Each structure stands twice: as C-alpha cells, then as structure tokens.
Amino acid sequence: MSDPRTPTADRVGELTDRLAAVRERVADACRAAGRDPSEVGLLAVTKTIPAADVAALVDLGLDAFAENRAQEAAVKVEEVRALRPDAAPDWYFVGGLQRNKARTVLPWVTRIDSVDSPRLARAIDKEVAKARDAGERDGPLPVLVQYSVDGDADRGGVAPDGLVALTDLVTELPGLELAGLMAVAPLGWEPDAAFGRIAEAHRETVGRHPGATVLSAGMSGDLESAIGHGSTVVRVGTALVGDRRIASE
After folding, report:
1. Residues 34, 161: Cα–Cα separation, whole Å
2. Phi-psi category of 180—alpha, beta or left, where left has phi over 0 and alpha has psi -120 to 50?
3. Cβ contacts of residue 163 below 8 Å, gap of 6+?
4. pLDDT in tens, 164-182
C-alpha cells in the first residue's frame, strides 16, 4: 500500500512539469513587460491539496504557500513541518478571514493578504498585541489590504472609496505592518482594464505609504496581464497543482 505522506512518482513528475511551465510563463511575461523575473514572486496556492504535495513542491524549490481556510491550513502547516522538518517555508493567508479566527492563524502565518475592513484590521491588531505580550511574537504582522476594483462586497475586498481610509488605519495600528495590496480581477472584466486600475490604486497607496511595495495580483488565468501592470506576486493554484481536492471534501 502506498504511503499517503509520499506522492507518487507520477505526481512528482506532474508537479515538476507544471512548476517549470508556470516559471516559464512568468519569465516570458516579465520579458514582454521589460521586467526582471526576479521582481515577481511565485505564491503557490495549496488549498485543498495534501501536505505531501506541498512537501514535494518544497523539494522542487518553492518556499511560499497560500491557504484560504484557517482550520485546514493550521493542520497542513504542522503536517508539512513533520514531513520536511529542515524546511522553513513561508505561509500566507489569502481567504476571507472572520474576526474570531484571527487568533488561530497567528501561530503559523507569515502574512495575512486579505485585510478588507477596519473591523478585521483592528481584530488582527488586538490578537497580535496579545501574542506579543505572551512572548509569541517579536514585532508587527505584515498584511496586505485586499482591494476590490468593482466594490463587490460578495467577493471581499475594500471598495475604491474606502481604500485610503483602510490603508491609513493599518499604518496606525501598532500590531500591523502595511506591506501592500492584494487584488483579483473581477469576473467578466477585461484583464488589462482590471489590472490597470489595480496598478493605479497601488501607485496611489505607495505614494501615501512608501513601504507598501507589494502588489499581489494575477492568478493562473491572467498572470501575464498582471505582470504587465506591475504585479510583484502572482498567486498560482490550478496551473501549478491541478484541480485536485483532498479526499475528505
């Protein structure tokens, strides 16, 4: 019987080929935009895939992984740690985060990329303060403000008319560090139009807060357009790991 903690040779081969293809796309997009590929980070979206696959991606050189479910992620982080005890990958939370779940992600998260409201920002800040008082954290937690180009509250993100106030608030909270913006091109939008607006919002944010240099934009289907508009991080799931789900779902 195969060991569920070890991906099959076929799966490792698939991940190897997919990773090479994604890296080639990123490099091609950077060349087309006159950018250095080193300017664009690859964030592997590993929601719903098993820890064994993440471990295989670690072996292939990836060190940044994104999850969007607090409970599932906490378990997976520990499983990956057990499988690769000598590795120290960074973990990012990219999904909608309930205020009462902020405490559960702090033990493992490197950065929260989906801060989209003042209430959530304050809730995270409060939990960071508790963690610092308990000696569990040394400094503020980096976060990205999630920006909604079209203001559709159902998909998350702060609307354009609330972006300045939210980014200003984050910089005022002692437990948070504003690292930049995260955004998704709305369904039905032409990617260049969406990422053009996102890039403009990011430039304005950097103008107010020079340290907010991260722009996490672009996914499997539109990363080329996002890179052309200045994205510094692309979040790739399906193109990298395929459309797989863990057996319990």
Report:
1. 32
2. left
3. 145, 147, 201, 205
4. 999 999 999 999 999 999 9
